[in-house]
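Ticket #4471: structure output looks truncated?

Reporter: J.K.
Steps to reproduce: submitted the chain below (477 residues) through the standard prediction queue, then opened the result file.
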Amino acid sequence: MRLSVRLLAASALALSLATPVLAQDAATIQRAERIRDAALRENIALDYVTQLTTRFGARPAGSKAEQDASAWAADYMRQHGFRNVRIEQFPLVGWERGVESASIVGPRPQGLVVAALGHSPGTNGVIEADVVRFDSLEALNAAPASSLTGKIAFIDAGQMVRMQDGSGYGPLSRIRGAGPAAAAGKGAVAFIMRSAGSDEHRMPHTGTTRYVEGRVPLPAFSLAAPDADQLSRLIGLGETVRISLSSTAHTYETVSQNVIGDIVGASRPNEVIVLGSHMDSWDLGTGAIDDGAGGAITLAAAKVIAESGRRPARTIRVVLYGSEEVAQPTNTGNGGGAYLRNVQAAGQLENHIVAGESDFGADRIYALRLSPGAQNSDFQRAATQVLYPIGVLASGEPELHGGVDIGPLAEAGVPVFGLAQDGTRYFDLHHTADDTLDKIDPEQLTQNVAAWAGLVWLIADSDVNFRTMRPGETPAH
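Returned output as attached by the reporter:
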Protein backbone atom coordinates (compact mmCIF):
# COMPACT_ATOMS: atom_id res chain seq x y z
CA MET A 1 0.00 0.00 0.00
CA ARG A 2 1.35 3.41 -0.90
CA LEU A 3 2.01 5.81 2.00
CA SER A 4 -0.54 8.35 0.83
CA VAL A 5 -3.27 5.70 0.83
CA ARG A 6 -2.12 4.28 4.16
CA LEU A 7 -2.15 7.77 5.67
CA LEU A 8 -5.79 8.30 4.78
CA ALA A 9 -6.85 4.81 5.77
CA ALA A 10 -5.13 4.89 9.15
CA SER A 11 -5.95 8.39 10.36
CA ALA A 12 -9.32 7.58 11.91
CA LEU A 13 -7.98 4.50 13.65
CA ALA A 14 -5.02 6.44 15.00
CA LEU A 15 -7.26 9.08 16.48
CA SER A 16 -9.42 6.45 18.12
CA LEU A 17 -6.41 4.68 19.61
CA ALA A 18 -4.68 7.76 20.92
CA THR A 19 -5.46 8.70 24.50
CA PRO A 20 -6.68 12.31 24.65
CA VAL A 21 -3.82 14.69 25.34
CA LEU A 22 -3.78 17.83 27.41
CA ALA A 23 -5.47 20.79 25.77
CA GLN A 24 -2.35 22.93 25.69
CA ASP A 25 -0.65 20.29 23.51
CA ALA A 26 -3.26 20.37 20.75
CA ALA A 27 -1.57 23.08 18.67
CA THR A 28 1.82 21.38 18.88
CA ILE A 29 0.34 18.04 17.83
CA GLN A 30 -1.58 19.59 14.95
CA ARG A 31 1.55 21.32 13.69
CA ALA A 32 3.49 18.06 14.01
CA GLU A 33 0.87 16.39 11.82
CA ARG A 34 1.16 19.16 9.23
CA ILE A 35 4.96 18.87 9.27
CA ARG A 36 4.68 15.10 8.85
CA ASP A 37 2.41 15.57 5.85
CA ALA A 38 4.69 18.22 4.35
CA ALA A 39 7.59 15.78 4.58
CA LEU A 40 5.54 13.15 2.75
CA ARG A 41 4.98 15.58 -0.10
CA GLU A 42 8.44 17.07 -0.50
CA ASN A 43 11.85 16.93 1.16
CA ILE A 44 15.51 17.05 0.18
CA ALA A 45 16.59 13.63 1.42
CA LEU A 46 16.91 11.97 -1.98
CA ASP A 47 18.71 15.01 -3.41
CA TYR A 48 21.24 15.00 -0.56
CA VAL A 49 22.09 11.30 -0.68
CA THR A 50 22.19 11.33 -4.49
CA GLN A 51 24.67 14.20 -4.57
CA LEU A 52 26.75 12.79 -1.72
CA THR A 53 27.20 9.33 -3.21
CA THR A 54 27.59 10.58 -6.78
CA ARG A 55 30.04 13.39 -6.10
CA PHE A 56 32.25 11.56 -3.59
CA GLY A 57 31.54 7.84 -3.85
CA ALA A 58 32.98 5.84 -0.95
CA ARG A 59 34.11 7.91 2.05
CA PRO A 60 36.52 5.87 4.20
CA ALA A 61 37.24 7.48 7.55
CA GLY A 62 40.07 9.96 7.28
CA SER A 63 40.25 9.82 3.48
CA LYS A 64 40.24 12.85 1.23
CA ALA A 65 36.81 11.74 0.01
CA GLU A 66 35.42 11.91 3.55
CA GLN A 67 37.06 15.28 4.16
CA ASP A 68 35.81 16.73 0.86
CA ALA A 69 32.32 15.33 1.42
CA SER A 70 32.23 16.94 4.86
CA ALA A 71 33.16 20.35 3.44
CA TRP A 72 30.46 19.97 0.78
CA ALA A 73 27.87 18.90 3.38
CA ALA A 74 28.64 21.98 5.48
CA ASP A 75 27.96 24.17 2.43
CA TYR A 76 24.79 22.18 1.74
CA MET A 77 23.59 22.89 5.28
CA ARG A 78 24.26 26.60 4.91
CA GLN A 79 22.40 26.73 1.60
CA HIS A 80 19.37 25.12 3.25
CA GLY A 81 19.02 27.45 6.20
CA PHE A 82 21.13 25.86 8.94
CA ARG A 83 22.98 28.16 11.30
CA ASN A 84 26.20 27.85 13.31
CA VAL A 85 27.50 25.40 10.71
CA ARG A 86 30.97 24.20 11.59
CA ILE A 87 33.45 21.40 11.02
CA GLU A 88 35.24 20.01 14.08
CA GLN A 89 38.33 17.93 13.32
CA PHE A 90 39.98 15.22 15.41
CA PRO A 91 43.05 12.99 14.85
CA LEU A 92 42.62 9.57 13.30
CA VAL A 93 44.53 6.51 12.20
CA GLY A 94 43.28 5.95 8.66
CA TRP A 95 43.37 2.68 6.74
CA GLU A 96 43.69 1.89 3.04
CA ARG A 97 42.74 -1.49 1.63
CA GLY A 98 45.26 -1.65 -1.16
CA VAL A 99 45.15 -4.82 -3.28
CA GLU A 100 44.06 -8.19 -1.92
CA SER A 101 43.65 -11.73 -3.23
CA ALA A 102 43.04 -15.24 -1.99
CA SER A 103 42.94 -18.71 -3.49
CA ILE A 104 43.00 -22.36 -2.58
CA VAL A 105 46.31 -23.79 -3.75
CA GLY A 106 45.81 -27.35 -2.57
CA PRO A 107 44.56 -30.00 -2.98
CA ARG A 108 43.48 -28.33 -6.27
CA PRO A 109 43.60 -24.62 -7.22
CA GLN A 110 40.39 -22.61 -6.78
CA GLY A 111 39.81 -18.88 -6.54
CA LEU A 112 38.31 -17.26 -3.43
CA VAL A 113 36.60 -13.88 -3.02
CA VAL A 114 37.73 -12.06 0.13
CA ALA A 115 37.82 -8.58 1.64
CA ALA A 116 40.38 -7.53 4.20
CA LEU A 117 38.84 -6.53 7.51
CA GLY A 118 39.22 -2.88 8.41
CA HIS A 119 42.56 -1.91 9.96
CA SER A 120 43.95 -5.38 9.31
CA PRO A 121 47.66 -5.18 8.48
CA GLY A 122 48.93 -6.31 5.09
CA THR A 123 50.52 -9.69 4.54
CA ASN A 124 53.97 -8.34 3.57
CA GLY A 125 54.04 -10.53 0.52
CA VAL A 126 52.13 -13.81 0.21
CA ILE A 127 51.01 -15.99 3.11
CA GLU A 128 50.57 -19.63 2.16
CA ALA A 129 49.47 -22.05 4.88
CA ASP A 130 47.11 -24.86 5.80
CA VAL A 131 43.64 -23.96 7.07
CA VAL A 132 42.09 -25.08 10.36
CA ARG A 133 38.31 -24.67 10.53
CA PHE A 134 36.24 -23.76 13.62
CA ASP A 135 32.48 -23.40 13.86
CA SER A 136 32.52 -20.69 16.54
CA LEU A 137 34.72 -18.19 18.31
CA GLU A 138 34.39 -20.34 21.42
CA ALA A 139 35.85 -23.32 19.57
CA LEU A 140 38.82 -21.22 18.46
CA ASN A 141 39.35 -19.95 21.99
CA ALA A 142 39.30 -23.54 23.26
CA ALA A 143 42.05 -24.69 20.86
CA PRO A 144 45.30 -25.69 22.59
CA ALA A 145 47.99 -23.05 22.87
CA SER A 146 50.30 -22.94 19.84
CA SER A 147 48.08 -25.44 18.00
CA LEU A 148 47.73 -23.06 15.05
CA THR A 149 51.39 -22.18 14.69
CA GLY A 150 52.08 -21.45 11.03
CA LYS A 151 48.43 -22.04 10.04
CA ILE A 152 45.40 -19.99 9.01
CA ALA A 153 42.41 -19.95 11.37
CA PHE A 154 38.99 -20.07 9.68
CA ILE A 155 35.69 -19.53 11.51
CA ASP A 156 32.49 -20.49 9.73
CA ALA A 157 29.66 -19.89 12.19
CA GLY A 158 26.98 -20.33 9.54
CA GLN A 159 24.71 -17.92 7.75
CA MET A 160 23.55 -14.82 9.60
CA VAL A 161 19.94 -15.09 10.79
CA ARG A 162 17.79 -12.58 8.90
CA MET A 163 15.81 -10.47 11.39
CA GLN A 164 13.75 -7.31 11.03
CA ASP A 165 15.63 -5.65 13.87
CA GLY A 166 19.05 -6.84 12.69
CA SER A 167 19.73 -8.82 15.86
CA GLY A 168 21.30 -11.65 13.86
CA TYR A 169 24.31 -9.45 13.17
CA GLY A 170 25.75 -9.35 16.67
CA PRO A 171 26.99 -12.97 16.85
CA LEU A 172 28.97 -12.57 13.61
CA SER A 173 30.29 -9.06 14.24
CA ARG A 174 31.59 -10.37 17.56
CA ILE A 175 33.68 -12.91 15.64
CA ARG A 176 34.96 -10.18 13.35
CA GLY A 177 36.07 -8.08 16.30
CA ALA A 178 37.65 -10.74 18.50
CA GLY A 179 38.63 -13.46 16.02
CA PRO A 180 41.98 -12.09 14.79
CA ALA A 181 43.36 -11.67 18.31
CA ALA A 182 42.11 -15.13 19.30
CA ALA A 183 43.78 -16.65 16.24
CA ALA A 184 47.04 -14.81 16.90
CA GLY A 185 46.98 -16.09 20.46
CA LYS A 186 47.04 -19.67 19.17
CA GLY A 187 49.95 -18.99 16.81
CA ALA A 188 48.05 -18.47 13.54
CA VAL A 189 49.60 -16.44 10.73
CA ALA A 190 46.26 -15.15 9.39
CA PHE A 191 42.52 -15.22 10.10
CA ILE A 192 39.53 -15.64 7.80
CA MET A 193 35.84 -15.76 8.63
CA ARG A 194 32.54 -16.29 6.89
CA SER A 195 31.27 -12.89 5.81
CA ALA A 196 28.96 -11.19 8.35
CA GLY A 197 25.89 -10.79 6.15
CA SER A 198 22.47 -12.29 5.49
CA ASP A 199 22.95 -12.73 1.72
CA GLU A 200 24.37 -15.63 -0.29
CA HIS A 201 26.02 -13.43 -2.92
CA ARG A 202 29.64 -13.90 -3.86
CA MET A 203 30.36 -10.50 -2.41
CA PRO A 204 32.18 -10.27 0.94
CA HIS A 205 31.19 -7.92 3.74
CA THR A 206 34.05 -5.94 5.22
CA GLY A 207 33.99 -4.25 8.64
CA THR A 208 36.43 -3.28 11.31
CA THR A 209 38.27 -5.60 13.62
CA ARG A 210 39.73 -4.83 17.03
CA TYR A 211 42.99 -3.32 18.17
CA VAL A 212 44.79 -5.20 20.95
CA GLU A 213 47.58 -3.39 22.78
CA GLY A 214 47.75 -0.76 20.05
CA ARG A 215 47.67 -3.00 16.99
CA VAL A 216 45.59 -5.45 14.98
CA PRO A 217 47.64 -8.62 15.57
CA LEU A 218 47.52 -10.32 12.16
CA PRO A 219 46.09 -10.10 8.61
CA ALA A 220 42.36 -10.79 8.69
CA PHE A 221 39.80 -11.33 5.92
CA SER A 222 36.10 -11.96 5.40
CA LEU A 223 35.18 -14.65 2.90
CA ALA A 224 32.12 -14.39 0.63
CA ALA A 225 29.34 -16.72 1.79
CA PRO A 226 29.44 -19.15 -1.19
CA ASP A 227 33.21 -19.39 -0.86
CA ALA A 228 32.91 -20.08 2.87
CA ASP A 229 30.48 -22.88 2.02
CA GLN A 230 32.93 -24.25 -0.54
CA LEU A 231 35.86 -24.14 1.86
CA SER A 232 33.86 -25.79 4.66
CA ARG A 233 32.66 -28.56 2.33
CA LEU A 234 36.19 -29.22 1.13
CA ILE A 235 37.52 -29.48 4.66
CA GLY A 236 34.53 -31.66 5.55
CA LEU A 237 35.62 -34.16 2.90
CA GLY A 238 38.77 -34.71 4.90
CA GLU A 239 41.06 -32.76 2.61
CA THR A 240 44.03 -30.79 3.92
CA VAL A 241 43.31 -27.39 2.43
CA ARG A 242 46.09 -24.90 1.78
CA ILE A 243 45.36 -21.25 1.05
CA SER A 244 47.31 -18.35 -0.38
CA LEU A 245 46.52 -14.84 0.94
CA SER A 246 47.92 -11.45 0.02
CA SER A 247 47.07 -7.90 1.01
CA THR A 248 48.79 -4.52 0.75
CA ALA A 249 46.54 -2.88 3.36
CA HIS A 250 48.17 -0.25 5.54
CA THR A 251 47.41 2.50 8.07
CA TYR A 252 48.37 6.18 8.04
CA GLU A 253 47.99 9.29 10.19
CA THR A 254 45.16 11.63 9.19
CA VAL A 255 42.14 13.52 10.53
CA SER A 256 38.40 13.02 10.45
CA GLN A 257 35.70 15.52 11.35
CA ASN A 258 32.15 16.09 12.52
CA VAL A 259 29.89 18.40 10.52
CA ILE A 260 27.41 20.28 12.72
CA GLY A 261 24.53 22.57 11.85
CA ASP A 262 21.63 24.01 13.86
CA ILE A 263 18.04 25.02 13.39
CA VAL A 264 18.18 27.52 16.23
CA GLY A 265 15.33 27.43 18.72
CA ALA A 266 13.11 30.47 19.01
CA SER A 267 12.65 30.75 22.76
CA ARG A 268 14.98 28.15 24.33
CA PRO A 269 17.91 28.01 21.90
CA ASN A 270 20.33 26.60 24.48
CA GLU A 271 18.26 23.41 24.80
CA VAL A 272 19.60 21.06 22.12
CA ILE A 273 18.16 18.01 20.39
CA VAL A 274 20.84 16.03 18.52
CA LEU A 275 19.96 14.17 15.31
CA GLY A 276 22.90 11.97 14.40
CA SER A 277 24.21 9.89 11.50
CA HIS A 278 27.70 9.33 10.10
CA MET A 279 29.52 10.65 7.07
CA ASP A 280 32.19 7.96 6.64
CA SER A 281 31.56 4.70 4.82
CA TRP A 282 33.38 1.57 3.83
CA ASP A 283 35.33 1.61 0.60
CA LEU A 284 33.65 -1.19 -1.36
CA GLY A 285 30.38 0.57 -2.26
CA THR A 286 29.33 4.22 -2.10
CA GLY A 287 27.89 4.27 1.42
CA ALA A 288 24.30 5.00 0.36
CA ILE A 289 22.50 2.97 3.00
CA ASP A 290 25.40 3.06 5.48
CA ASP A 291 25.04 5.89 6.18
CA GLY A 292 24.39 8.46 3.49
CA ALA A 293 20.70 7.77 3.98
CA GLY A 294 20.86 8.60 7.69
CA GLY A 295 22.34 12.02 7.02
CA ALA A 296 19.73 12.60 4.34
CA ILE A 297 16.89 11.66 6.69
CA THR A 298 17.95 13.80 9.65
CA LEU A 299 18.97 16.80 7.56
CA ALA A 300 15.73 16.71 5.57
CA ALA A 301 13.61 16.35 8.72
CA ALA A 302 15.23 19.40 10.30
CA LYS A 303 14.75 21.40 7.11
CA VAL A 304 11.05 20.51 6.88
CA ILE A 305 10.62 21.76 10.44
CA ALA A 306 12.53 24.96 9.66
CA GLU A 307 10.26 25.64 6.71
CA SER A 308 7.03 24.95 8.58
CA GLY A 309 6.33 28.62 9.19
CA ARG A 310 7.47 28.78 12.81
CA ARG A 311 10.70 27.81 14.50
CA PRO A 312 10.39 25.38 17.42
CA ALA A 313 11.27 26.50 20.92
CA ARG A 314 14.38 24.32 21.16
CA THR A 315 17.40 24.01 18.90
CA ILE A 316 17.55 21.05 16.51
CA ARG A 317 21.15 20.06 15.80
CA VAL A 318 22.13 17.78 12.92
CA VAL A 319 25.52 16.12 13.39
CA LEU A 320 27.18 14.22 10.54
CA TYR A 321 29.75 12.26 12.53
CA GLY A 322 33.13 11.22 11.18
CA SER A 323 34.91 7.92 11.69
CA GLU A 324 32.03 5.75 12.88
CA GLU A 325 33.11 2.63 11.03
CA VAL A 326 36.66 1.99 12.17
CA ALA A 327 38.35 0.83 15.34
CA GLN A 328 41.27 2.87 16.68
CA PRO A 329 44.32 2.16 18.85
CA THR A 330 43.06 4.78 21.34
CA ASN A 331 39.59 6.11 22.17
CA THR A 332 40.17 9.53 20.60
CA GLY A 333 39.50 8.70 16.96
CA ASN A 334 35.72 8.54 16.67
CA GLY A 335 33.17 11.23 15.97
CA GLY A 336 30.82 10.43 18.83
CA GLY A 337 33.58 10.64 21.40
CA ALA A 338 35.00 13.82 19.86
CA TYR A 339 31.59 15.50 19.95
CA LEU A 340 31.09 14.56 23.61
CA ARG A 341 34.52 15.85 24.60
CA ASN A 342 33.85 19.17 22.89
CA VAL A 343 30.47 19.77 24.54
CA GLN A 344 31.85 18.74 27.92
CA ALA A 345 34.78 21.14 27.52
CA ALA A 346 32.31 23.91 26.69
CA GLY A 347 30.11 23.06 29.70
CA GLN A 348 27.13 22.32 27.42
CA LEU A 349 26.36 18.68 28.13
CA GLU A 350 23.45 19.45 30.45
CA ASN A 351 21.85 21.49 27.65
CA HIS A 352 21.40 18.35 25.58
CA ILE A 353 17.76 17.34 25.97
CA VAL A 354 17.73 14.13 23.93
CA ALA A 355 19.54 12.48 21.01
CA GLY A 356 18.50 10.13 18.22
CA GLU A 357 20.45 8.38 15.48
CA SER A 358 19.57 7.23 11.96
CA ASP A 359 22.03 4.52 10.91
CA PHE A 360 20.13 1.49 9.64
CA GLY A 361 19.53 2.18 5.97
CA ALA A 362 16.50 3.77 4.37
CA ASP A 363 13.71 1.20 4.69
CA ARG A 364 10.56 2.10 6.57
CA ILE A 365 10.31 2.96 10.25
CA TYR A 366 7.94 0.66 12.12
CA ALA A 367 8.40 1.47 15.83
CA LEU A 368 9.17 4.34 18.19
CA ARG A 369 11.35 3.63 21.22
CA LEU A 370 11.61 6.26 23.93
CA SER A 371 13.72 6.51 27.05
CA PRO A 372 12.37 4.43 29.97
CA GLY A 373 10.64 7.32 31.73
CA ALA A 374 8.74 8.31 28.60
CA GLN A 375 7.17 4.90 28.09
CA ASN A 376 3.36 4.99 28.60
CA SER A 377 3.49 8.76 29.07
CA ASP A 378 1.39 11.57 27.65
CA PHE A 379 4.29 12.30 25.32
CA GLN A 380 4.29 8.76 23.96
CA ARG A 381 0.55 9.00 23.35
CA ALA A 382 0.96 12.31 21.52
CA ALA A 383 3.75 10.81 19.42
CA THR A 384 1.57 7.81 18.60
CA GLN A 385 -1.15 10.13 17.37
CA VAL A 386 1.32 11.72 14.96
CA LEU A 387 3.20 8.59 13.86
CA TYR A 388 0.59 5.83 13.68
CA PRO A 389 -0.94 7.09 10.41
CA ILE A 390 2.39 6.46 8.64
CA GLY A 391 2.77 2.98 10.08
CA VAL A 392 4.88 3.65 13.19
CA LEU A 393 3.81 2.00 16.43
CA ALA A 394 4.87 2.83 19.97
CA SER A 395 7.19 0.08 21.18
CA GLY A 396 7.11 -1.35 24.68
CA GLU A 397 10.89 -1.69 24.43
CA PRO A 398 12.73 1.42 25.70
CA GLU A 399 15.74 2.95 23.99
CA LEU A 400 18.74 2.86 26.28
CA HIS A 401 21.94 3.19 24.28
CA GLY A 402 21.29 4.79 20.89
CA GLY A 403 23.77 3.92 18.14
CA VAL A 404 27.54 4.09 17.88
CA ASP A 405 27.59 7.84 17.26
CA ILE A 406 25.26 9.00 20.03
CA GLY A 407 26.34 6.20 22.36
CA PRO A 408 28.90 8.44 24.12
CA LEU A 409 26.16 11.00 24.83
CA ALA A 410 23.93 8.24 26.22
CA GLU A 411 26.74 6.98 28.46
CA ALA A 412 27.19 10.55 29.71
CA GLY A 413 23.53 10.71 30.75
CA VAL A 414 21.77 12.24 27.74
CA PRO A 415 18.41 10.48 27.10
CA VAL A 416 18.05 8.84 23.69
CA PHE A 417 15.18 7.80 21.43
CA GLY A 418 15.04 5.36 18.55
CA LEU A 419 12.96 5.13 15.38
CA ALA A 420 13.32 1.45 14.50
CA GLN A 421 13.72 0.72 10.80
CA ASP A 422 12.95 -2.47 8.91
CA GLY A 423 16.33 -4.16 8.61
CA THR A 424 15.16 -7.31 6.84
CA ARG A 425 17.40 -6.69 3.81
CA TYR A 426 19.93 -4.33 5.39
CA PHE A 427 22.59 -6.97 5.99
CA ASP A 428 22.36 -8.17 2.41
CA LEU A 429 24.01 -4.87 1.46
CA HIS A 430 25.85 -3.69 4.55
CA HIS A 431 29.63 -3.16 4.11
CA THR A 432 29.60 -4.57 0.56
CA ALA A 433 30.11 -3.30 -2.96
CA ASP A 434 26.32 -3.43 -3.27
CA ASP A 435 25.78 -0.49 -0.89
CA THR A 436 24.83 1.90 -3.68
CA LEU A 437 22.18 4.54 -4.35
CA ASP A 438 19.89 2.29 -6.39
CA LYS A 439 19.16 0.24 -3.25
CA ILE A 440 17.28 3.17 -1.67
CA ASP A 441 13.51 3.08 -2.06
CA PRO A 442 12.47 6.76 -2.35
CA GLU A 443 9.03 6.16 -0.84
CA GLN A 444 10.44 4.45 2.23
CA LEU A 445 13.10 7.16 2.54
CA THR A 446 10.32 9.75 2.56
CA GLN A 447 8.43 7.88 5.28
CA ASN A 448 11.58 8.04 7.41
CA VAL A 449 11.81 11.80 7.00
CA ALA A 450 8.14 12.23 7.88
CA ALA A 451 8.49 10.19 11.05
CA TRP A 452 11.61 12.06 12.17
CA ALA A 453 10.11 15.46 11.37
CA GLY A 454 6.84 14.84 13.19
CA LEU A 455 8.47 13.36 16.28
CA VAL A 456 11.25 15.92 16.54
CA TRP A 457 8.79 18.80 16.29
CA LEU A 458 6.87 17.36 19.25
CA ILE A 459 10.06 17.30 21.30
CA ALA A 460 11.45 20.61 20.09
CA ASP A 461 8.32 22.68 20.67
CA SER A 462 7.45 21.24 24.07
CA ASP A 463 8.96 21.40 27.54
CA VAL A 464 9.06 17.64 27.97
CA ASN A 465 12.09 16.77 30.12
CA PHE A 466 13.28 13.21 29.47
CA ARG A 467 16.07 13.62 32.03
CA THR A 468 13.70 13.98 34.97
CA MET A 469 11.04 11.51 33.84
CA ARG A 470 10.93 8.21 35.66
CA PRO A 471 9.13 5.02 34.59
CA GLY A 472 5.44 5.30 35.30
CA GLU A 473 5.45 9.11 35.44
CA THR A 474 4.02 11.54 32.91
CA PRO A 475 5.91 14.63 31.82
CA ALA A 476 5.09 18.19 32.76
CA HIS A 477 3.59 20.18 29.90
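Triage note (M.O.): checked the attachment and the full C-alpha coordinate line is present. The radius of gyration is 24 Å.
Status: closed, working as intended.
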